[in-house]
């Protein structure tokens, strides 16, 4: 009974990930080319090929716990080389978004960085590198990370303590609001 | 030749050299750049990792402004270029997506204009012959590794102007400027992007691999077309080398800086004085800054 329930839940998850990413999981015949060329594979718990295999076998709940979708650098090497044109970066996005919805943030620093990035973007319409780094350092509990790089960056005029805010900030806020209204966006 | 110009956030900050040098060489070569008024961030990796619609709507806002002017868009940043192309393709391929995106951004956008990488505009739009004619200080004797990274050439369906495994656009440009492009195997390997920040342990290893392979191939400098590649390689070079018990002195360049040099502009006008790895000793050693033509002028 428990096994049947688990398989059903995984089937739902599989359908959901397929719908969101546009990837047809059965397209993948497990040749492994994606993982041979993945520059981040040495640090992943499951290779990209294994993540697909987990989903194919109805073990999606294991895939949700994986760090792999969070470490994917979206470099597009796998997608470019896949003989079946499986869009793995899109699949990784869909898996991590579902994991995030379930509160499973497997790489906290990656998530803190991205949420801080989207935060400055929504507030100012542009990314503010210095504000982003300060916020990231504080929230990730490493206040002195890259601290030695800040003075030369300031001296070279490459970062500024002041954000540049665009005029049409209402337009940006509307974009975020309308995306949220469609059931997505930053939570 | 007129383009809408989308600099992107980095070019206003950590990549200001790229902005400065791109504008200068465009003007020199007769390419008019109309900076998209009140442009906004493309959303970068953070948007597409978190929400697909958001990742299309944010670039589309900028593309719509350029479309209303009837202009194609020239984009120096490889990452912005990739995101703008993704939005353009999604809207062009699907009527329902076109309607959805237009509604979200509150502007009509039909993707009738095209996004082009600034490198593509220079090499294939202006053309190497015309650039060659304008070279007054050839980069003679300078061995350079053309580093494309990921998003300029991948996925090829989106980027569509060069080979995804062995691109040559920047190599041919280096040759046209009088330099020597080395053959190497890491030209499209990923620098790790923002992993350098969020997972520094992984980032420095990826950065080191790129730099080490450039040096081992005989390069004296690395040429990029991406602000994130540049920042990772230039700012973190010393850190990446130290983490591997190695020492590196490889200056990193934007291709537009090298174009500017060869066209006769001074290093400070191109931003060559604000790099972390100072490129001036190399340029002086190669006597590129003191080409005979210039020596005659100052004598």
TrEMBL record, chain A:
**Species per Swiss-Prot/TrEMBL record:** Neomoorella thermoacetica
Enumerate the GO terms in the molecular function aspect. 4 iron, 4 sulfur cluster binding; metal ion binding; oxidoreductase activity
Stored Gene3D superfamilies: Alpha-helical ferredoxin
The name under which this protein is listed is: Glycolate oxidase iron-sulfur subunit
Q: Which domain of life is it from?
A: Bacteria
Q: Does the keyword Endoplasmic reticulum apply?
A: no
- Domain (4Fe-4S ferredoxin-type) spans 19-49
Entry keywords, A to Z: 4Fe-4S, Iron, Iron-sulfur, Metal-binding, Oxidoreductase
State any GO CC term.
Answer: plasma membrane
Against PANTHER family, the record matches this protein to: IRON-SULFUR-BINDING OXIDOREDUCTASE FADF-RELATED (PTHR43255:SF1), IRON-SULFUR-BINDING OXIDOREDUCTASE FADF-RELATED-RELATED (PTHR43255)
From TrEMBL, chain B:
Q: Has the keyword Oxidoreductase been applied to this entry?
A: yes
Q: Superkingdom of this entry's organism? A: Bacteria
What Pfam families does the database record attribute to this sequence? CCG
On whether Cell division is a keyword of this UniProt record, the answer is no
Q: Which GO terms describe its molecular function?
A: oxidoreductase activity
Q: Which UniProt keywords apply?
A: Oxidoreductase
Looking at the record, the residues that make up the Cysteine-rich domain are: 3-84, 145-234
PANTHER family to which the protein is assigned, alphabetical: COB--COM HETERODISULFIDE REDUCTASE SUBUNIT B 1
Protein name per the record: Lactate utilization protein A
């Amino acid at each position: 009974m428990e096994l049947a329930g688990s398989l059903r839940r995984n089937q739902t998850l599989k359908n959901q990930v397929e719908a969101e990413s546009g990837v047809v999981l059965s397209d993948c015949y497990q040749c492994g080319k994606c993982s041979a060329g993945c520059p981040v594979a040495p640090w992943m718990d499951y290779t990209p090929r294994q993540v697909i295999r987990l989903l194919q076998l109805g073990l999606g709940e294991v895939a949700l716990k994986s760090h792999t979708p969070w470490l994917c650098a979206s470099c597009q090497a796998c997608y470019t080389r896949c003989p079946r044109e499986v869009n793995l970066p899109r699949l990784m996005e869909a898996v991590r978004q579902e994991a995030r919805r379930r509160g499973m943030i497997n790489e906290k620093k990656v998530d803190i960085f991205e949420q801080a990035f989207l935060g400055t973007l929504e507030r100012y319409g542009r990314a503010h590198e210095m504000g982003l780094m300060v916020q990231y350092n504080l929230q990730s509990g490493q206040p002195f990370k890259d601290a030695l790089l800040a003075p030369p960056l300031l001296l070279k005029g490459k970062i500024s303590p002041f954000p540049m805010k665009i005029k049409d900030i209402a337009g940006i806020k509307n974009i975020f609001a309308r995306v949220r209204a469609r059931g997505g966006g930053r939570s | 030749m007129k383009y809408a110009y989308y600099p992107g956030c980095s070019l206003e900050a950590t990549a200001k050299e790229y902005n400065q040098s791109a504008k200068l060489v465009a003007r020199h070569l007769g390419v008019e750049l109309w900076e998209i008024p009140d442009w906004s961030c493309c959303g970068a990796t953070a948007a597409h990792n978190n929400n697909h619609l958001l990742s299309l709507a944010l670039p589309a806002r900028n593309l719509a402004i350029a479309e209303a002017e009837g202009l194609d868009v020239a984009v120096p940043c490889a990452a912005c270029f990739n995101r703008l192309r993704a939005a353009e393709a999604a809207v062009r391929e699907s009527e329902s997506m076109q309607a959805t995106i237009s509604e979200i951004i509150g502007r009509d956008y039909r993707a009738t204009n095209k996004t082009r990488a600034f490198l593509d505009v220079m090499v294939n739009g202006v053309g190497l012959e015309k650039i060659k004619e304008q070279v007054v200080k050839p980069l003679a004797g300078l061995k350079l590794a053309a580093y494309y990274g990921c998003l300029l050439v991948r996925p090829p369906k989106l980027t569509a102007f060069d080979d995804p495994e062995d691109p040559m656009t920047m190599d041919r440009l280096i040759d046209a400027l009088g330099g020597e492009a080395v053959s190497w195997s890491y030209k499209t390997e990923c620098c790790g992007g923002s992993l350098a920040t969020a997972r520094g342990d992984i980032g420095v290893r990826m950065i080191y691999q790129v730099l080490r392979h450039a040096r081992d191939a005989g390069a004296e400098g690395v040429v990029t077309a991406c602000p994130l590649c540049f920042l990772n390689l230039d700012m973190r070079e010393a850190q990446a080398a130290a983490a591997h018990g190695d020492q590196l002195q490889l200056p990193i360049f934007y291709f537009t800086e090298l174009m500017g040099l060869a066209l006769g502009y001074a290093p400070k006008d191109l931003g060559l004085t604000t790099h972390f790895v100072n490129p001036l000793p190399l340029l002086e050693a190669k006597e590129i800054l003191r080409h005979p033509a210039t020596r005659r002028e100052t004598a």
